[in-house]
Amino acid sequence: MVRLRSVTSLDEAYLEQLGFVWHTDSDETPYVADTLVEVTPAEAEAYYEAGNELYDMYVAAGEHVVANNLFHEIGIPFNLVELIKESWENEVHWHLYGRFDLAGGIDGKPIKLLEFNADTPTALFETAIVQWAILKKNGMDEMAQFNGVYDALLENFKRLVTLEESVESFHERYEGWRFLFTSVRGNAEEENTVRLLQYIADEAGYETEFAYIDEIEFDGEEGIFYDGIHYELWFKLIPWEDIALEEPDLAMLLTQIVQNQKAIIFNPAYTLIFQSKALLKILWDLYPGHPLLLESSFEPLAGRTQVRKPFFGREGGNVAILESDGTPLVEMPGEYDAFPSVYQEYVELPMDAQGAKYQAGLFFAYESCGLGYRKGGEVMDNLSKFVGHVIAP
């Protein structure tokens, strides 16, 4: 059984003061739970080690895809292949951050990879800021969390320039590069996540600006411009597959901009390889039976309870849990059914006394750096709750 500790919730006014405005779900219930998951020091260390090992495995799988030209097999749109190759082969295209979704890790259950949100991971604000504020509000030890997300991002922003483990030489090498941060209009969660990243980049030492995507000018020969100013660095919380499929002209321009070395884009295009759930099958091929992995295939797993997932999708859209004979136990609606599917061995998530299930979200920025949980049903969707954690013996 998941160990929980009741806490006093942060009120809406306080959350909004922090910049956290998506505190209430569409059913008018609070998005942030009034409990914390209790995690032992050993469990926190195991999550840390698992994330580091998984990332190394993803890099090896990415190299396998690039070396063997498996872009089509994992659903990569053809108009991004050249940009992905360019970003993969040049080390200046640094992966800023991502989030592993994991089963287990608590209640005696082994850690198992579910997927990697490598391109446009959300839940950043609540993991880095909100769950820490809950500890502070409740008079608890503010260090009693596996939560170094803010500092890890601060250091990783500096690595965009130093490209090495040490960031001591950042201010010697930094030449006043301008960093533009972008989201779409009308999505408060995405915008404030981007603004948090902008704030951290400011602290790192960059000259930053925020703009909505429709305010930016893209020139294949000259680069990325906002309000007449050229930006060498661009962060966009817009999925690469959406750019490829819905804005093909932009995909072409961004390819030209990167090839002409007029801008560096974050997260880089190669993170779409990691983002594709088809890579779960590649990982299983490369590391069959690995204790952190679940068996995955492009074909249904014979005689196994399994999860069918579209190669690209979010918030549980079009995910189905299938019985061993293929009968759906759970089938989620969504807009991602045009993508091919991967089949992954089913594993039960840890549960609390009321039967709610818990899925770990482990952030990665150069190394594993922070933990949070989502609470919900068999498939986490847009009504799942965020649950912080506390490290306790």
Structure characterization notes:
- Helix 2 (41-67) packs across helix 11 and helix 5 packs across helix 7 (188-204).
- The protein has 2 domains: 4-275 and 351-391, no CATH class; 295-345, no CATH class.
- The chain has helices at residues 12-18, 41-67, 81-89, 124-137, 149-162, 170-173, 188-204, 240-246, 248-259, 271-275, 279-286; strands at residues 4-6, 32-39, 98-103, 112-117, 178-183, 207-212, 217-219, 223-226, 229-231, 233-236, 264-266, 296-297, 306-310, 320-322, 328-331, 341-345, 357-364, 368-376, 385-391.
- With 393 residues, it is an alpha+beta fold.
Low-confidence stretches: none
Structural classification: alpha+beta
Q: What is the general shape?
A: globular
| Percent helix | 25-40%
Compute the average pLDDT: 95
From the alpha carbons, calculate the radius of gyration and give it in angstroms: 21 Å
Order of helices and strands: EHEHHEEHHHEHEEEEEHHEHHEEEEEEEE
What is the domain tally? 2
Sheet bearing the most strands, described? 7 strands, mixed
Protein traits:
2 domains, 393 residues, 19 strands, five-stranded antiparallel sheet, alpha+beta, 11 helices
